[in-house]
Design brief:
Layout lengths: L2 H13 L1 H9 L1 H7 L6 H8 L7 H8 L4
Helix pairs in contact: 1-2, 1-5, 2-3
GO molecular function, one term: transition metal ion binding
Amino acid sequence: MSQAQIETIIERWMSDAEFRARMQTAPQATLAEEGYELSDEEMQALDKLDLTAGDEELLRQASFGG
């Protein structure tokens, strides 16, 4: 999984309320609409994140040490 790509998505999540709301309801569609191209493995990892978590928890989940 691309750490830089996930960090970019998380940073956008934290700074863009509209993006966050779209991600919570339709993450795969939102990423595709925004031009993010994730591999199947990256999408599976993203699917494991709790998108209802607060920013700090989401960052912890997204860190590869997890």
